[in-house]
Amino acid sequence: MSVDAFKLAQEIRRRFEEGDARLPVLPEAVIKVRAMVNDKDKGAADIAKVIATDSTFSTTVLRIANSARFKTAGVEIRNLSMAIQRLGGRRTLQLMTAISSQIHLAVKDPDLQALLRESTQHSLLVAAAAQHLACLVGSVDPEEAFMGGMLFDVGVAAIICAVPEEMAACDDQQRHELLRQLHREMGGRLLTYWEMPDAFIALASHHGVEADDRPRENLIDVIDAVQFLLAGTGHTPPFDVMPEGVDVLHFPPMKRLGLNETHLAAVEVELEDGFEELAGIFS
Asked: How far apart are CA 277 and CA 127, in angstroms?
């Protein structure tokens, strides 16, 4: 079936602007934890009780808290209260939102399911590498970089959920072109709707593009540097276009972060093990 990509892009924007888009909804557990994080009378035990009611969240939060990227001093995290004390309430909330962006989406069309899997796999790669790069450069919190890697392409899910029938009617080339066009704009709108911190909204809205209105945020530079590195190792970003013919150390985000060959080599070594670990957590 032929689809007018320009008209569909207009329709997606209209639905977002008029509130008609079927946006991915945060699970009830996330909404409850958000309220608790803002309540000084609630603590880790209260948050743990809420998370325990959702098997997906409880399992995934424990796996992540015990993963090499979050566990400190080799101490095993044995229960949800320990995990939340380790991560902190606000970081736990952000983590639950990141988990929601990856595994709480249900679409029936197999082609759209494949697109969501493609987005998830790329986000996992970026999250693993971004956290490691942040550890090396020191100007971005590594856990924030991990969350950023999980969330920066959330606009892909937003668009697919907003117009699933129309996206299903597109061919593969049209789908990717629409997602490249709109995923930043719609990702920023979705994270605003989810009331995420400004740093993540700016990341979703401005990654992958050097423009005058791009915020000079190190988190955005870390994600873009990682995507550029991935493109150089054969993992082409599916929804962002990386510049060609640019030496890696002269790529603007790399220069702003002050990266050198040692940093790049360390990130490449991390990629395979980090991705496998995260893929196991979210399987």
From this structure: 11
Q: Which two tokens stand for residue 234?
A: 């054969």
DSSP state of 233: T
Spell out the alpha helix ranges (H) of the chain.
5-18, 28-37, 44-51, 55-65, 80-87, 89-103, 110-137, 142-151, 154-162, 164-169, 172-193, 198-206, 218-232, 252-257, 261-281
Q: Give Dmax (Cα) for the chain.
A: 57
What's the one-letter identity of residue 201? Answer: I
5 pLDDT above the threshold of 70 = no
Residue 67 has a pLDDT of 77
pTM of the model: 0.83
**DSSP reduced 3-state for 240:** coil
Q: What does the pLDDT read at residue 220?
A: 97
Alpha-carbon span 98 to 150, nearest angstrom? 6
Per-residue pLDDT averaged across 88-115, rounded? Answer: 80
CA-based nearest residue to 204, from 229, 218, 183: 183
pLDDT in tens, 119-145: 988 998 898 889 889 988 889 998 899
| Residue position matching structure tokens 């605003």 | 192
